[in-house]
Amino acid sequence: MYVLLEREDVIRIPPEKLSENFEKVTEEVTRETFEGRLANGIFNLIITDVEGVEECKIVHGDPGVYQKVKFTTLAFKPELQEIVEGFVCEILEFGAFVRLGSLDGLVHISQVMDDRISYDAGNQRLVGKQSKRDLKVGDKVRARIVTLSFNERVPRDSKIGLTMRQPGVGKFEWLEEAEKEVEKKEKK
């Protein structure tokens, strides 16, 4: 889920930037410090409306200054059981990685569809043995978040587990096929 949040935090302004326009430097350092970073299970994507709060503080032995700032952040906050949409960015023999904006989630091969699946390494796709449905790089999908594990030191190591084996989730083409089947049954 994407949310707009107002936050307050402290930034360190390095001494070489103290002679520049202070408002611009405060905004620049705030963005460098928080944009693209993970904190408390929230990924800060875009920082806006930065303003300094209170006067700067100086710490003995540090030539920089510390400024308390208030800002608005557009954040990605994944939650368990949330339905998300993305596209397949990589296929491996153990599953598919789905790009969810700033992060990738993994759909384990056992969670792709209700069928036995084979990995077609040559064509980079997962294929259902009976249904002949396939999943390949670039396919748009809808999935449910089933596990979350955040690594704040290395956000790229955070893990989001997804499933596409429930009603209403899967590859968009499969969902459209399911809707058409329901419409056919309703007409009869």
Folded structure, characterized:
This protein is an alpha+beta fold. It contains two helices and 13 strands. It is elongated and about 75 Å long. The mean pLDDT is 91.
Briefly characterize the structure.
This protein has 188 residues and is an alpha+beta fold. It has helices at 22-34, 172-187; strands spanning 2-13, 38-39, 42-58, 65-76, 83-92, 95-100, 103-108, 117-120, 125-128, 134-136, 140-149, 159-163, 170-171.
Descriptors for this entry?
alpha+beta, 2 helices, 188 residues, 49% strand, five-stranded mixed β-barrel, four-stranded antiparallel β-sheet
Helix content: 10-25%
How much strand content do the residues show?
over 45%
Element-level helix/strand string: EHEEEEEEEEEEEEH
Terminal residue distance = 39 Å
Based on DSSP secondary structure assignment, what is the total number of beta strands? 13
Overall mean confidence score, pLDDT: 91
Structural class: alpha+beta
> Helix segment count?
2
Strand order within the widest sheet? 5-6-7-12-11
Global Rg:
23 Å
Principal-axes shape call:
elongated
Sequence stretches where pLDDT stays below 50 over 5 or more residues? none
Largest pleated sheet: 5 strands, mixed, barrel
